[in-house]
Amino acid sequence: MTTGENAPRTPPARYALGGLGGLLAGLAALAVAELVSAAVRPEAGPVVAVGGAAIDRTPAPVKDWAIRNFGTDDKLVLQLGILAALALLALALGVLATRHRRTGAAGVLVFGIVGAVAATGRPDSTSLTDALPSVLGAVTGSLLLYVLAGRLRPPQPVEGSAPDWDRRGFVVTATAAALASAGAGALGRSLNGARGKDAVASRAQVVLPAPRSAAPPVPKGAALRIPGISPFRTPNGDFYRVDTALVVPKVDATTWRLRLHGQGVTRPLTLTYDDLLRRDLIERDITLTCVSNEVGGPYAGNARWIGVRLAELLTEAGVRPPSKGGPADQLVARSVDGMTIGSPVEDVMDGRDAMLALGMNGDPLPFAHGFPVRMLVPGLYGYVSACKWIRDIELTTFDAYDAYWVKRDWARRAPIKTQSRIDTPKPFARPRAGAVMVAGVAWAQHRGIDKVEVRVDDGPWLPADLAAEDTRDTWRQWSYPWTAAKGGHTLTVRATDRTGAVQTERRTGTVPDGASGWHSVVVTVD
Questions:
Q1: What pTM value is reported for the model?
Q2: How many CB atoms neighbour CB 26 within 10 A?
């Protein structure tokens, strides 16, 4: 008998192979989940579902930190973090299964339950079938780990012989599992990609009609030719993207529908994409700004949008603003991914160019920016106005309903604050002494920019040269020719909007209604 001090111990090498078995089980679980999600929907995959749940439950300051440090790569960082955590857990379960086979295998099932709960709890989940990818993936991973752990367990030793384990069986099973997982994962990704082909085809077939109300040509002198300054119009590929979608929705325009209903709606509407294309379209240059934009940050962009005036649709549905006796003061827009965005009805119907946008810079909306239809309201931060992939508009009140971001400590109402930014020279630049052009952009949507001033170190505020104004809903470029002396200097900018309000010096963070303060850059003149 082998008892007490003579009991066989598990060699370290076998623990390492147990960890490898855990990783293979995790890979198999994710591969099967990817394949099954192709039959359900891509958003039901465990990584996407858990990632979405993590985003929903992350405190606003942490989200702000992620956006500030990772920019538009924040979602990639989150997904890589989830995969790294899953790999470590799978490794631990594999080691555990070397000694406790059933417990290790059961641990994989627990994580399948977590994925299933996350998937069915998402705002865009409409069926319990969303649990299938996580459940079936976990069952596969659990069974594989149980089998691999069994290959590492020695049989009952024969008297006088050393216990051994099934090396050949482990290698054959592990190799087959790795190949099968790679194949299943690749097939799942391919099928998930194919699910969006109809949406891609529908976008390719869109021909945007000429707008009934075209945007006037950009005035001469509105776009300065200064190296380093942001272009007056932001190309689609460079336009900022900040949202919570880990998978960009690809919506087929031929099957898309928009429902307009709620309090004060006397004639509910259901509209197709073609219905919107047949209406009178407007075309406008509008600068959008994200509330997560820090002072001097990159999350602002200017584009030429084409779409349907939202106030006309609301009027057609019988909606009246609160100032005219309407019962609803909030318009709640819902996206296909479950996002909800609340906008003041009064602002949407006060005469500004609020629209359901169909096109961006002459093309149908890119998928990343809301194809087939998105909403935008000049003068309001995106989180209270710019619903992408919109599918539903409900009229309600602020007292009756809190939209997604309001539930997470952001303000219900958020007009864009007057801001200015130095684009050139960049922070810590080393320009040569003499003539240095300082330039950037300033914005105060729906009010317009009246003046921009620059200060060198602690000197007086000096007027910058303003580019021509396109409209009060677009940003305005500015420049200041600086005669730079050698040494270290701090350049600061501030703007004054058309109402006479001067950009405040008081520095605040982005929560709850947008950052404030003056933008400064430090340079060393050689």
A1: 0.87
A2: 27
